[in-house]
């Protein structure tokens, strides 16, 4: 990741220097934008310049509105940006985060030294709000240019150094210390998803997950010998056509009481999905390097939880395989025995994610007896048909867990939409020859995939997030300009924070 922005906090300055950003609030409908008293004082040397520029551009201080002034007379700054924040009293953490993102989007890389006055009229801006702005700056500044040999943003002329001016800089620094790890977690997830599969093999992925040890996460890596012993034949069947060895990684963060059952996060980590013998069409197949976005999210999340020393016991378990066609590859019609003992008839080798997750969910449930399990998987194209790229599909056997996830989604902007599960759908994956088959026909493809997973979770409260539409090829937003948004890290961190921390 190119960490192209340095962030620091300081008290309100006596005057403006360097590229400067002020926040404006919107007034009543049709009203003028307003600045805080501190901001007014800082631009006083410019006389009525702002007033006139604002009128000329009909700047109303609404969210998204920006007044961009170059070399404003009377001020010793190369550029003054006045950024609309909207109605000051209504701002939620997510609004501050997006505000940070939009500010970053307005700063040219050559800006060098930048100061942002975090202040609005009529409200007391909290240290937490300032930290959200900082997080928004970081998320927006992310770019994946590891393989661009012509331009490396590291040595670009102006690496940005941003100072956030706040009333209480010590408190803002403390708040940022709690949030900075989330930014790192999202960047880790984005990096993993953006990496091509010739670099990010299952073993390389496992090696990178091993870096979590540096922040205090316990990491265990299991190879094919271990997985055979455990009986994970469903997972191994997916990887058997690949030259790359399949892996399962277990990550543990023990921040809670030693006797309290952990929460568990499970990720699909298909480092590349050709479809196997049921091979995918060529067009767009390159996107299937991102078929490990669920596993990437789990790694990023574990990093985030550890960095903010979350008071919770959390385990992450990811299944890492490559789905390739080969003389040794699994065939349609093959029957495999999963770790649970249930047998599966393979109908389509491209429905591989559920085979991986079935074993990993079962393993996590048996070994850790978790309070709940949430799995993330780029599982079906059908979820994109149903929900597009704005919401992930949520399937759950537990209304309370589903409601918590929905609320965490509203709070973080990583939204989920609940989909149904029921015995009628479950019947669709009964098989002529085995206990179940790995596809359920043309209709309700995301639902039958979820029904398949449910056969491996027993009575543990469980939620499945189908992130095929959100985990990769992500829509561009205020806080993301990368192909991979690192979707889910902020959502699940929030779920843990609001619901399960002791
Ligand atoms: N990884 C794909 C799902 C996917 C598709 C993710 C497009 C992101 C973008 C998954 O393994 C898959 O191939 N699913 C099949 C299932 C089908 C064969 C029952 C699908 O969705 O077509
Ligand atoms: Mn597939
Ligand atoms: Zn897949």
UniProtKB/TrEMBL annotation:
Coiled coil: none annotated. The keyword Manganese applies. Binds 2 manganese ions per subunit. Its cofactor is Mn(2+). Mn(2+) 2 binds at residues 268, 273, 291, 352. It catalyses: Release of an N-terminal amino acid, preferentially leucine, but not glutamic or aspartic acids; Release of an N-terminal amino acid, Xaa-|-Yaa-, in which Xaa is preferably Leu, but may be other amino acids including Pro although not Arg or Lys, and Yaa may be Pro. Amino acid amides and methyl esters are also readily hydrolyzed, but rates on arylamides are exceedingly low. This is Probable cytosol aminopeptidase. The lineage of its organism: Bacteria, Pseudomonadati, Pseudomonadota, Alphaproteobacteria, Hyphomicrobiales. The gene is pepA.
